[in-house]
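Translate sequence into structure tokens.
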Amino acid sequence: MKNLRDAPSLSPEAYDRARTALQTAMAEPVATVVRPKRWFSWPKAGVAAAGAAAVAAAVVMGTSGGGVPAGPSDAAPPAVEAPLVKLASAVKAAGTQPGDASLIINTKFGLDNKPNYSYTLYTDKGQHFTGDSAKTLADAVAGGHAEPATPYDGKVMAAARLAANGDVDKARIAMITASNNALGVGLSPAEAEKAWAAAQAETAEMFRKTGKPVPAPKPRPTGKELENLINNHLWSNAEHALFANAADAEVRAGVLKLYATIPDMTVGKTTVDGQAALTLTAPPAILGGGADVLTINAGNGLPIREEITSAESSKRYVVNYKAFRVTLADVAAGRI
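Result follows.
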């Protein structure tokens, strides 16, 4: 890490996705969520930063102890937070504002409390543009420097839209399994065991390639352990859909409905800059004992802030969000 002091800042997608991967690894030492390779394609960070992230993930995978919680059902539990369901309906009814892309501006505060700005543009065609300022984002759009859509992006967006349009049970399974189905959600017992074994074999191969000791095989989790892992995948994948495409009302509404199916999710009320807001606190059990609190606008569901506290060190990280509907032409012209 000392050697990375002069490395350029990471893209917003790299930050969000690394956070998701680490959250999942802390809760799931064996069947970690396998993210698309593009998640670790960080042109501004360079090879050193990507390598350090890979080593960090491997360390978390190798040192996170304990088994995994056991036994959930595949169907969505009853909506535990009526406020989220009500807000989701209002968001969908209001519809998406004009434009052809969603713009998310992140302001990240690390342990030094210094702001780090990131711009992500997710187009209605599924492309991504990133920058660390309004100018670099405009230059990326004007130059056509888009990252292509990935199957993972398409899956989380489709799952959110499916939930928004009413089939929450099916959407929940689709969101949980957007990156892989190592947990065997929706499969027969025999198929689930086969999926678990295949995921462990893939993980073992990753350790071999990095020259690290291969962890001993673990039995497939069941009961509460499995339920916690499933809800970890649901929380993380739905978060990605929200942070990539929050300004799309249908995606936003679907994410809110899916969050409402997570048992023990806590929804609180607060105000941010004089506006009513809701705080969504994920159950610590699904995050390996850490804390993740997402604050959203109580009127339109747009993300405002995320506060993450690590389980072991109690260190706190904050990200502020602003989301807008825009047109590619306006962004290319610097009108952000």
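Note: The two ends are 34 Å apart (CA to CA).
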